[in-house]
Amino acid sequence: MQQSIVIGICQMQVQTDKSVNLHKAEKMVQQAADKGANLVILPEVFHAPYETAGFRHYAE
Description:
The chain has one domain. About 35% of the residues lie in helices and about 10% in strands. It has 2 helices and 2 strands. The chain has a two-stranded parallel sheet.
């Protein structure tokens, strides 16, 4: 039996405000799920700008 999977791939412009980024990502995941995605892929560093100078600031 063959099964299929629907994958949603998201791109986003990351902001310096982590909560804004998380909210955007959450909305995109929900939109992808609403369109039938079983798996949603987000950018590697979607929660904070990818610049080495900011790593300590955005670290958890």
